[in-house]
Amino acid sequence: MRLSRYFLPTLREDPKEAEVISHKLMLRAGMIRRVASGIYTFLPLGLRTLRKVEQIVREEMNRAGALEVLMPLVQPAELWQETGRWDKFGKELLRFKDRKDHDFCLGPTHEEVITDLVRGEIRSYRQLPLILYQIATKFRDEIRPRFGLMRGREFIMKDAYSFDADEKGLDKSYQLMYETYERIFTRCGLRFKAVLADTGAIGGKESHEFMVLAETGEDTIASCPSCGYAANLEMAEAVRDFQYADEEEKPLEKVSTPDVKRVEDVARFLGVSPAKLVKTLIYLIDGKPYAILIRGDHELNEVKLKRALGAESIVMADAATVAKLTSAPVGFAGPIGLSGLTIIADNAVKGLKNFVVGANESDAHYVNANYPRDFDIEAFYDLRNVTEGDLCPRCSSPLELTKGIEVGHVFKLGTTYSEAMGATFLDAEGKERPFVMGCYGIGVSRTMAAAIEQNHDENGIIWPMPLAPFHAILLTLSPKDTKLMEASENIYQALQEKQVEVLWDERDERPGVKFKDADLIGIPYKIVIGKKFQKEGKVELKSRRGDEEHSFTPEEAVNFLSEKVKG
Ligand code: ATP
Ligand code: MG
């Protein structure tokens, strides 16, 4: 591709609309443009990378024996009513009516449509297992679309669904998809980790997320370097740490803490460590009021809370509700003398002695509170985020925390959808049974963004070869020199004959501009043809990562790149 004929609107400055690196760089590199919040157009350069991710995904899904289909974005309400999700799925489900007043939605996911397809077509256990997939547009009316392709409203997903006769079959399909995902992200050239994930309320049995490792990731992963245990923060078990402090219980005492509310401030004011404080958080859980006790230096994990109580909805109480329930403003709630709320606590609270809690009145705390001497706790659970140095639940080595971006998700659904929709087959005995299902997603467009978050520097993107929109960029430094242009043209043709995808910058621009653009768009190899060619017939070949630099004849350069592309 000749750059003078290409559509590559690069930007020098960071666009104001972008907060994260991948979003900034994709806009600056002329890969995407915003159409509306969370909705983007892919420009030619961006589309090339999107297609590369798609192609790797498609080849590996096909290799696993999965079959590609294409389902509609627009889905009728009836199917969603069958599973009850028409009412349960929140506002992320964009609903609308057609001209005949029929209800429809834009598909955020395709369990209903695929289950409907399969129940109509597959009758016998002999036709199983079956794995169907598609690479298609999804729409989720995300409450906070942000970070460009990372969390869009309209985005490209690969979603797959497995249908098996029994649990054993599902285990096999799940394992096959898990291994396929490992192959996919390895082929993409990304550093990633599969981690245990929460299965949520729909009664799933097992789930893993595939995380691209990047410091800028929104997700936290706890992993054990000794035994390989890895889980996202919602699943990482905090190993109980309630050794009883070797202290005498001291008498309870109320102290004045004027306008001192935050844990750190209270701790400083009273001269104790935050670990000697217990926070009391007020929540409405399935509509009922709860007080949740967490050690001052720990953080509540709402997903753990939801799972522990088997709750459907958990909402942090607003200031007015807190005031009503505790008779004190936010910041002074405590378990002592609290009535009308269910009090539960994180395991770590159990071992504390002589700790500080709010006194349920303005500007006051209790010191030397002790459980069970001073108040009751209904139940203890693992409710907190693990922290660096917490012990691995499997082997007791210290855990490490790293950041990641969720690019894929595999999930054992079981019979939730097939039962709700009456999707059955006949087993070997002629008995009707529901399909045992799994579902498997990859954020195709998010993977592009994640690749950039992981691979960039201050000058721009550094594409891993398999995802690069072009393998090489040929920079002709003096396009007015006809000899140089002729030699460039020859290299350009020779590269293409060897299947090297090359972008030829033959624009009448200063060398500085060409180098800047080449670095910004992150093409793995630059071939520079300029003075050195005029003098010694050599071109310079440089890797974008900066770890390779060669002086080559044009022929050597072509052969070198041809080998690189073959992998
Ligand atoms: P998240 O927790 O990030 O909201 P999710 O768990 O809702 O994602 P899944 O339903 O598991 O997502 O979807 C499968 C994959 O689709 C995810 O692993 C992610 O890579 C991608 N994905 C989900 N939501 C978005 C989005 N709004 N924009 C881009 N990609 C997305
Ligand atoms: Mg997910």
Kindly describe this structure:
The chain is of the alpha+beta class and 567 residues long. 28% of the residues lie in helices and 28% in strands. It contains 15 helices and 31 strands. The strands form eight sheets. Strands 3, 7, 8, 9, 10, 11, 12, 21 and 24 form a nine-stranded mixed beta sheet that branches. A hairpin with a 2-residue loop joins strand 14 and strand 15. Helix 2 (44-63) crosses helix 11 (444-454). The longest helix has 21 residues, at 167-187. The protein is globular and about 95 Å long. Bound molecules: adenosine-5'-triphosphate and magnesium ion. Magnesium ion is lined by residues 209, 406, 409.
Task: List the topology elements.
Layout lengths: L20 H8 L3 E5 L2 E4 L1 H20 L3 E2 L5 E3 H7 L1 H4 L6 E3 L5 E4 L4 H11 L8 E10 L14 E11 L2 H21 L4 E5 L10 E7 L5 E5 L6 E3 L20 E4 L6 H8 L7 E8 L2 E8 L6 H8 L4 E3 L2 H8 L15 E5 L8 E4 L5 E6 L9 E3 L18 E15 L1 H5 L3 E3 L5 E3 L1 E8 H11 L1 E2 L2 E2 L10 E5 L5 H16 L4 E4 L5 H11 L3 E5 L1 H6 L2 E5 L5 E4 L1 H13 L1
Magnesium ion (MG) binds next to strand 21.
SS strand fraction: 25-35%
The description of the largest β-sheet is: 9 strands, mixed
Globally, the shape reads: globular
Oligomer: single chain
Backbone structural class: alpha+beta
Low-confidence sequence ranges: none
Q: Could you tell me the number of beta strands?
A: 31
How far apart are the first and last residues' alpha carbons, in Å?
22 Å
Count of individual helical segments: 15
Instruction: Return the average pLDDT rounded to an integer.
Output: 95
Bound molecules: adenosine-5'-triphosphate, magnesium ion
**Radius of gyration of CA atoms, rounded to a whole number:** 29 Å
Helix content: 25-40%
